[in-house]
Amino acid sequence: MPFESDEYSKRALDFVERLQRLKTYDEICKHILKELAQFGFNYLTSFSIPQAGQSFKDCMWFNNRPQDYIERYSSQNYVLKDPVVTELRKNLNPYSWSDVRRTRELKKSEVNIIDEAREWGSRDGMMLQIVTNSGLVSCFCPCGLGPDLSPRARTALEVIAIYSHHALRRALVQNQRDDVVHIPLTPREREIMQWVAVGKTDDEIGEILLIASTTVTQHVENAKRKLDALRRTYAVVQAIRFGEISL
Amino acid sequence: MPFESDEYSKRALDFVERLQRLKTYDEICKHILKELAQFGFNYLTSFSIPQAGQSFKDCMWFNNRPQDYIERYSSQNYVLKDPVVTELRKNLNPYSWSDVRRTRELKKSEVNIIDEAREWGSRDGMMLQIVTNSGLVSCFCPCGLGPDLSPRARTALEVIAIYSHHALRRALVQNQRDDVVHIPLTPREREIMQWVAVGKTDDEIGEILLIASTTVTQHVENAKRKLDALRRTYAVVQAIRFGEISL
DNA sequence: GCGAAAATCCTAAGAAACTAGGATGGACTT
DNA sequence: AAGTCCATCCTAGTTTCTTAGGATTTTCGC
Q1: Does the residue A65 lie in any domain?
Q2: Span A9-51, pLDDT tens digits
Q3: Is A37 inside a domain boundary?
Q4: What is the nearest CA distance from B52 to chain A, expressed in angstroms?
Q5: Which of the pair, A74 or A126, is modelled with greater confidence?
Q6: Domain boundary among A161, A179, A197
């Protein structure tokens, strides 16, 4: 199963080059799965982390794990308890399920969730996070019975994950995102929203920029309208998402 | 100058493998510059996009462009006017300075800013955005007199940019970021902050979760304290930054 | 020079958020 | 059994935000 060292480098970039020529969602999926199979991954789940009010299923880019497993996982609300998932919040870097078992002290109920996956054909897997330009956090999770998780395989997987995610997203979201036309903010509106994002009040912003606080309010209201937001918390989130301000 | 096709793939992953063994900031910079020189890039600027109140210079990961050019750029407030920079907000993907000239209708004053760079040794360059887990948007900007900007070079550059950025960040920020201990939110606090982030009022959240609005207020206040925020706009930004909620 | 867009300033009432106090019950740990 | 953390509920006074009206000046492209 394991390749020679050089083999990994070559494979990964060959994969990327071929991937970039594919257009349709189905072609892209097939290409990704074929590549992952070479590493011993039978399954792949790729999803963006759902917002409040969104269901897990609506946020899937791709999934080929057994449907009844997903149903079970979803109905038991495992996504809030699974240590492999909660680790996402703590760990910047790619990690494997076995890394989590080794490095964290888990409750019995948590270990059970990981063990349960075996009954559906997965003993170990990788978790790779991708953060897109718009701040959307996505997770690329290949798994299988006996995947290759060597350091060199992980480096190659990281490249594969980034490009696979972009390709899936390109195929699935391109049109959808173009629909969401967003009215651009003016420079002053942007400037003021940056101060709003760090928690300044309109009075404080007025003092900082040497303008009346009513003017600040005015700019914020204009920005809210352009960002399609009723409260400034959401306006800030939207401004980040649209790239008007950054974190 | 241009390599054979296969050469790009091999170079890029060789670069990554060698980069991962380097520890110090200076070693890493030297390695990156050497690699970029192979593509015809003499200069590199790498920075995170400054928040309100932060200066451009504090957000630099690396820069070797002439100091007087940076001073001029900074004092003229070019960062708000430079079309190559404003394009960052619109364009998800890597692009070159010449792409911007070709695809956008620019004012004379905007073209001047790009042209001015020639006097300091850069005729063209690439802009590559990297968004980290914590939502920080960074920009990796190599430039030079006659860089190789062929499609295959761009693919390789994307890999180089991602890993270079991570390496620089690892070397510069590791300790700094560990200082910023953040008190984790409870599941309920997280859940409520997600609703705050989409602009719901406490009354509305109370109705959704079937609890009293005063309880919602209480949870938000606890979350604000843990996130070190005085207003909920900033609390939302912090929660995103710490990975407690996602966009 | 004209028109459009941007930036500036204002009032006033009602809604929402912030602050500073509380209190109770349940789950889990030691 | 005691202690800790979490989730739930409450009041009341203060500040900030939201909304719905205005108006004037500046800037920039044509």
Answers
A1: yes
A2: 678 778 887 887 888 899 999 999 999 999 999 999 998 877 6
A3: yes
A4: 5
A5: A126
A6: A179
Q: Report pLDDT digits (tens) over A141-195.
A: 999 999 999 877 887 888 888 888 878 877 776 544 444 568 889 989 999 999 9
Separation CA B43–CA A106 (nearest Å): 48
Residues B53, B123 within the same domain = yes
For residue B193, give its domain range: 187-241
More confident residue, B177 or B63: B63
Which nucleotide, over all strands, has the C1' atom closest to the CA of A212? C9
Statement to judge: residues A131 and A219 lie in one domain: no
Task: Confirm if B23 and B11 have CB atoms less than 8 A apart.
Answer: no
Per-residue pLDDT tens digits for B204-226 = 999 999 999 999 999 999 999 99
CA–CA dist B161, A201 (Å, integer): 38
Which class for B52: exposed (0-12), middle (13-18), buried (19 or more C-beta within 10 A)?
middle
Nearest CB to B237: which of A48, A155, A247? A247
CATH number of B136's domain: 3.30.450.80
Strand order in the sheet with A60-63: A60-63, A43-48, A137-144, A124-131, A95-96
- Encoded amino acid at A59, one letter: C
- The total number of residues written for chain B in this structure: 247
> What pLDDT shows up at residue A92?
65
| Whether B150 CB is under 7 Å from strand D | no
CA of B240 to C1' of C6 (A): 32
What pLDDT score does B179 carry? 42
Q: Does B68 touch chain A (CB under 8 A)?
A: no
The dihedral sign for the CA sequence B99, B102, B107, B112? positive
Q: Which residues touch strand C (CB under 7 A)?
A: A 107, 186-189, 206, 209, 211-212, 214-215, 217-219, 231; B 201-203, 217-218, 220-221, 224, 230-232
A11 shares its domain with A43: yes
Mutate to test the interface with B, among A4, A13, A189, A201 (most CBs of B within 10 A): A13
Does B41 lie in the same domain as B152?
yes
Are residue A99 and residue A142 in the same domain, yes or no? yes
Q: Is residue A246 part of a domain?
A: no
Q: What is the pLDDT of residues A74-106, one digit of tens each?
A: 766 677 678 888 787 767 678 999 988 888 777
Those nucleotides of strand D lying less than 7 Å from any protein Cβ are: 5-11, 15-19, 21-22, 28-29
Same-domain check for residues A123 and A139:
yes
The DSSP secondary-structure symbol of B3 reads P
pLDDT at position B185 over 50: yes
B222 CA → C25 C1’, Å:
19
Number of domains in chain B: 2
| pLDDT, position A1 | 45
What tokens does A200 get? Answer: 């300044």
The gap from C-alpha A48 to its chain's centroid, in whole angstroms, comes to 4
